[in-house]
Amino acid sequence: MLIEGPRLLSAALAAGIKPVAVFGTPKALERHATSGVELSESAFKAIADAESPQGIAAEIALPALRREGTWVFLEGVQDAGNVGAIVRSAAAFGAGAVILDRACADPWSPKVLRAGAGGHFALQITQVDELAPLVEGFSGTTLCTLPRGGAPLGAMQGRIGWIFGSEGGGVSAPLQALAAGKVTIPMSGTESLNVAAAAALCLYFSRPGAGS
User: Phi first, then psi: what are they for 23, rounded to 5°?
Assistant: First the structure.
């Protein structure tokens, strides 16, 4: 996969990921004191996804990292910004894995990578055909979020598997049936939160040590 920009490259290096190759314009490579394959401005724009590329990119192998701790299951989350923000929050609050179904945005797409801000390199990220077998096999407590009717969100202990659904439809009935519990975030003044905001709150309250 190709990662773009000095921030993602620095995050990958900090996580111990060695690039297969680094590409950049001469100015960018010099500015960031990085050696790599030099490309002209026009050649770099041809491989870059960003509208205003920063002149440096790297090819890396998909990382395979830890899977313990909290897991996040994403069902049908199609917005790349939301998927990336959830990955970022999962990494920030010590989760071990993010598992997505095929209806979600590609977790390794450039937009998701940018929104993830390096969180991809601290997690196991997997996209699967069906979430149900992994939800059923999760060795902890699975919880899904509902706009109303669930137990109020609070600090919790133990290994949690969070299930978050699509921006419009939420968690499907079959996955709700597999969850050991249902959680609702207490709110006033709005019916529901953006899925990325809801995930950030849930991950914060289930982070290591939150319930102690």
Answer: -125, 145
pTM for this prediction? 0.82
- Residue found by looking up tokens 């920009």 in the block: 5
Which residues 6+ apart lie within 8 Å of 184 measured at CB?
145, 146, 147, 148, 149, 150, 151, 152, 153
DSSP assignment, residue 166? Answer: B
And the tokens for 179? 């969850």
> Looking at this protein, which amino acid is placed at residue 6?
P
Token pair for 211: 């319930």
CA count, 13 A, side-chain hemisphere, 96: 13
Tens of pLDDT, residue by residue, the chain (212 residues): 788 888 888 888 887 888 889 988 988 888 888 888 889 988 988 888 877 888 888 888 876 656 778 999 999 999 999 999 999 999 999 999 999 999 999 999 999 999 999 999 889 999 999 999 999 999 999 999 988 888 999 888 889 999 999 878 889 999 999 999 999 998 876 667 899 999 999 999 998 777 65
The four Cα atoms 82, 87, 92, 97 give a dihedral, to 10 degrees, of 150
The Cα angle at residue 14 between residues 9 and 16, in degrees rounded to 5: 100
- What is the DSSP secondary-structure string of 117-132? TTGGGGSEEEEES-SH
